[in-house]
Structure formats: C-alpha cells, structure tokens
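Protein fold
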Amino acid sequence: MTEASLSQAQPGLSVIILTHNEERHLERAIKSIATIASEIFVIDSFSNDRTIEIATSLGAVVLQNKFINYAKQFQWGLDNAPIKCKWVMRLDADEIIEPDLIEEIEQKLPHLPVDVAGINLKRKHIFMNRWVRYGGRYPLVLVRIWRNGQGRIEDRWMDEHMVVWGGRTITFEGGFSDHNLNDLTFFTNKHNKYATREAIDIINQKLNLFPRDMAVTSESTSLQASAKRFIKERIYNYLPFTLGAFTYFFWRYIFQLGFLDGRSGLVYHFLQGYWYRFLVGAKVMELEAAIAQLTDKQQIILELSNLTGHDLVIDCQQKI
C-alpha cells in the first residue's frame, strides 16, 4: 500500500486468516471477530473441503495462493489483499478472540496515539479441551495487531513473528485462545512437519546458506518473543539435542510448574516440550550427515530440498 493510500485508510480493523481444509474451525474463528472486523480476508491454499463455502457465507473475501510456508503465505496475503483499514490483525483459523479482548479492542483501538505501531495480545493454549496454564505457556505475548503499512511477517521457515516499525508496541490484557479441535494424530503429524521446517532454519543458521531474517528485536515485537529467540538461537541451538530437549522439558515441567496442568498437561508438555525438540535435533543430525560430504552451497541447498521436500532453491533465489 502506498503512502498516499495509507493516509486515506479507513478506521477499523482488517483480519487476515490463512486456511487449508479448516471447515472444522473457520466458522468459530470468524464469528469470534464478527463485531470488531470491518473486513476479513481468508488466504486459502486450495482447500478441498467446505472452507471456501464457509468463508464466503460469513462475508469473508477469499484469495487463493499456493502454500510454501506460513511466512510466505501470510506475507502474500498482506501484499495482495485489498486492505482498507488502519489496523490489521493476524488470526489463525483455530484461534478464538475472547469477549474480554473484543471489548478491549472496541474501546481502545480507535483512540490509540499515533506513536503506537503494534499491539501485543496474550495467547492461551487449549489442549485436550483444557487450558495449559503452566510450563511457561501462558501468557504467550505476540504482536497480532499493527498499523496498516507498519508491519510484516518474518521470512523464516519456522517460528515466524510479526514485526513492526515506526512506533512502539503496547499490550492488551484480554485473551485469545489457540484451540485446535483435531486429535493427537493431527497434532503429531503437524509437529513432524514443523520439525522439518525448524531443522532447515537451524542448518541455515549454522551454514549461512541464504540470508536469515533477523528482524525480531524488543522494539519490533514483544519483549518475550525477542528474549525467547535470543535464548533459542544463541544458547539452545548449540547444545547437544539429547541434553537440550531433556533440559527444556525438565525446566518447563518442574521449575515452570507444568505438572500442575494435570494428566493432559503431561501429554502436552512431553510431546511439545520434549518429543518435538528431540525430533528437531534428530532431523538436524540426519540432514547434516546427508550433506556432510558437500562443500558447494548450491549443492547443499539442492540436496536439502530433495531431502525435506521444500524448495529451498527458490527460497534462496528470492533472498539473494
């Protein structure tokens, strides 16, 4: 959006939601923002269920684009959706904006000073229909609302954050929930895919195969998000994964009181805090062994593309 069109942006809030076969969640997500969203854009990666039908029936504008990764898909939506409002929100299809946050947005958003560029929201995680309150999982403070033209998403394969510029960020106290209704098979399949993408980022951190997006700072996003990124990339990623995964789980489950989340909490903290971190490390080990004899960066990128099923060649060309 040009500077002139930004100055003519309408009051209100535009919401962007990414989808692929989200008929189970999408209606719930859209209805949760119905009273605050001036326009809703669903960026769909060619769903073959009722996702598009549901979106259009609820008044959303649907755009379709081939999915590469979350960051590229969301930025494509940000660049191509005809956004007219002064404020933009990122919402996942399995997330719900809760009534207290709805009220806070309605009351505060129209009156924020011009030096506020972004708004952090506090996310709850619901697992097996229970709120995960401990283990460092609440609140997760994330930039999810920003002034039109003053925010973008990091270009990363995993753990991407919204970053803002041209002003400060503030935090709203109302809640929103990540509440996926699918089963454990879906959860583990999803995290298996996440692990591959995170392994790509870790290998790139080590080998500098293509430029890394380093936009996350305490000024551009939440302090919590920038601190976690620093610890992960400057400390955790250099630990042996067998030690790192166990230490992280132990810290979460004992020192951050994850055991208070009960039996379902144990399932969550073990899978997401130990099994997933261990899987990421194991995939890094496997991929590093496969490329150990290669010295040319282009050959390494091509081999990683073949092994992971992700087109890193295109990704590299786009960043050069």
In short: Residues 184-319 form one domain. Residues 241 and 282 are 7 Å apart (CA to CA). The chain has two domains: 3-179, 184-319.
